[in-house]
Amino acid sequence: MATQLRFTGQQSNMDIPRPSFAAQKKKKRLILIVVAVIALAGITFGLSRLKPAAPSVERSTLWSDKVKRGDMLRQVRGLGTLVPEEIRWIPADTEARVERINVLPGTKVEPDTIILELSNPQAEQEAMDAEWQLKAAVAELKNARVRVESELMTQEAGAATVSADYNEARTRAEIDAQLAKLGVISGQALKASEGRAKELSTRNEIQQKRVDINAKAVDSQIAVQQARVEQLRALAELRRKQLNALKVRAGIAGILQEVPVQVGQRVTAGTNLARVAEPEKLKAELRIPETQAKDIQIGQPAQIDTHNGVMKGEVMRVDPAVQNGTVTVDVKLTDALPKGARPELSVDGTINLDELKNVLYVGRPASGNERSTISMFKIDPDGKGAMRVQVQLGRSSVNAIEIINGLKEGDEVVLSDMSRFENADRVRFE
Q1: Do residues 313 and 164 share a domain?
Q2: Among 47, 290, 349, 413, which residue has the fewest nearby CB atoms (within 10 Å)?
Q3: Burial class (CB in 10 A: 0-12, 13-18, 19+), 45
Q4: In which band, very low, low, confident or very high, does the pLDDT at 223 lie, cut at 50, 70 and 90?
Q5: CA dihedral defined by 133, 139, 142, 148, rounded to 10 degrees?
Q6: For residue 370, is it within any domain?
Q7: pLDDT at 76
Q8: At residue 391, does pLDDT exceed 90?
Q9: How far apart are CA 321 and CA 398, in angstroms?
Q10: Considering the chain, what percentage of its residues have pLDDT values greater than 70?
């Protein structure tokens, strides 16, 4: 029993609770987690507040320019071709068939050179009919003139007879008046002679008026027939012209450029048969972008580059219409043509608009229209990077543009296309 009691007492001593570190470890772990979360949140917040690193770009690949102050010549540039000042398209006057082509394109021609020959039997018949109708009308005019003049002469002869009878009756009445005073004849005989003289006087006046009216009628009848003759003469001239036009002539001295028809082909009235131009008299036909053409005026100086020489000229015409986003401008050449200049030769043209005095300007950037606000990268003084700035642009030229605000004289800016860095405010140079 004693032994049993002793064993029981030892067991009681072992069951006494010891101080435990579990709660402390748990608390410590919780504190570490909270600290880690707070630290992570702080780091995340700090990183979110940091700006992204500036992208880098190779400096040698960029095109830049410094802002200058001075006079800026405004110019516009366009591509174009040399074209003849005078181009003559020769149309067909009537429907016809191409019988023969006498001259090929590229040949020098004179005004009377027959380029090609046409045939039209109907035109030939109509020309012959018109000639016969004219001859018949002329003959009818002659007959009418003879007829009316003969009738007028007959009436004039009748009027002359009446006039003679009147003069005789008047003389007789005067004599009878004298005889009546002497008592040789009776008063009744005097009244009879005076009455006849009065009657013949009236008939004479009527006959003279009739002659005058018939004379005017003669002029009217002749005029009607004359008008008919003139009408047929004009028709005959037209038919003759159409017949002669079957032999197609150049009309001007120059070079035959094109014959767009073939032998045997039937053409209608108005069809272009040939084109002739004077190669020595050329002008430049430039196509200027419509956004740059608004300030172009007739008479402004220009330079035309044929790639074999530069010629001076001046604006002679500005097309009022816009085609495919461009305006056609004709430039008259005032210098002699260089060697190799010929129609349809491609040229570059530059037109001087005006000169701006004492303005800030810089080379024209890759993007940005005149009178607009754009962002540009201004190069740092140390040349190691560039910062984006807002720049207000003014009037533009071919290679330069006016600066209104945002830059000052001496600033250097990037003119190259920087659209790939549109989300960056700075760039670093490598």
Answers
A1: no
A2: 47
A3: exposed
A4: confident
A5: -80
A6: yes
A7: 92
A8: yes
A9: 23
A10: 89
Q: How far apart are the C-alpha atoms of 264 and 324, rounded to whole Å?
A: 38
- Are residues 336 and 234 both part of a single domain? no
Which residues fall within 8 angstroms of residue 332, CB to CB, at 6 or more apart?
85, 283, 313, 314, 315, 316
Identity of the residue numbered 173 = A
Mean pLDDT of 399-412: 93
pTM of the model: 0.56
Residues 411 and 382 in one domain: yes
Q: Which residues contact 2 (CB under 8 A, 6 or more apart)?
A: none
Q: How does pLDDT run across 71-110, given as a tens digit for each residue?
A: 999 999 999 999 988 888 999 988 899 999 999 998 999 9
pLDDT digits (tens, 9 = 90+) for 35-49: 777 877 767 665 555
Let me know if residue 41 belongs to a domain: no
Please tell me whether residues 289 and 414 are part of one structural domain. yes
Tell me whether residue 341 is in a domain.
yes
Q: Is residue 160 part of a domain?
A: yes
pLDDT in tens, 263-320: 999 999 889 999 998 877 899 999 999 888 888 999 999 999 998 889 999 999 999 9
171 and 309 share a domain?
A: no
More confident residue, 302 or 52: 302
My answer on whether 74 and 92 are in the same domain is no
Same domain? 166 vs 302: no
How many distinct structural domains can be found in the chain?
A: 3
Q: Say whether both 335 and 413 belong to one domain.
A: yes
